[in-house]
Write a structure and sequence with these properties.
mainly alpha, 126 residues
């Protein structure tokens, strides 16, 4: 019975790409990345992003996801494509679209000021 109680949470796991904390934090990372890629006055804080990714990996493992599942998820080209598209939609809803760096810069400055995860992954060079 104890073995069943210990292993039961693993069966209740949602697919890793649907886990809310993992999804939201990764989306914020992709948003920050898109801002850094499209705004000349925003730079990615790469070491901060790597630390957040490691924290997220640890979180996923603590939730019961197997290391192979986590690795496959973060290296999946399909998942990366989905997150990039979702980040683009989020940014578009805020007025950013390719070819308009000023919009990306404004959103980046706003996210930094708000102290959001996306903002914490950016450094303004203004």
């Amino acid at each position: 019975a104890l073995t069943l109680a210990v292993t039961a949470p693993a069966y209740a796991l949602v697919p890793i790409n649907e886990e809310p904390v993992i999804h939201d934090k990764l989306l914020q990372g992709f948003i920050g990345d898109a801002i850094a890629d499209n705004c000349p006055t925003m730079k990615a804080r790469t070491l901060k992003a790597l630390g957040e990714l490691n924290n997220l990996r640890d979180y996923a493992l603590q939730q019961g996801y197997e290391a192979g599942v986590v690795r496959d998820f973060v290296t999946s080209k399909e998942e990366k494509k989905k997150f990039k598209a979702e980040a683009a939609e989020w940014l578009k809803a805020k007025g950013a679209e390719p070819g308009k760096p000023e919009a990306y810069c404004a959103i980046g400055e706003e996210e930094i000021a708000k102290g959001s995860l996306a903002g914490s992954l950016l450094r303004s060079t203004k």
